[in-house]
Amino acid sequence: MRIAFTFHNLAQSEHLKAYAQEKLVKLQKYMRGPLEATLTFSVQRHSFCVDVSVHAGAETYQGREEQADMYAAINLVMDKLRQQISRAHDAHKERRRVAVGG
Q: Cα(72)–Cα(23) distance, rounded to whole angstroms?
C-alpha cells in the first residue's frame, strides 16, 4: 500500500497520518491488488477538509469532506469511500451473475 499525504495551511501531524492510514488499511480488505492513495488535509476558514483519492487496479474512488473536527472529516470520507466500494462490488457481482446465468 502506497499512501501520499499532503497538508495545506496545516502543520504536518504524524498522529493524523497514522489515524488515516489505519482507516485506509480497513478499506484495503475490500479491494484487490495494490492500493495507492492520496490524502490531502487542509484548513479553509473554520473547517477542516479531507480529500481522498484511492486507486486499486483499474478502479478509482474519490471523496471529500468538510467538518469542524479533522477526525470526524476523516471518518466521514472513509464511510463515503466504503459506500462507493460496496456499490462497485455489488455492480460487479450483478454483471457476473447476469453473464453466467443468462
A: 12
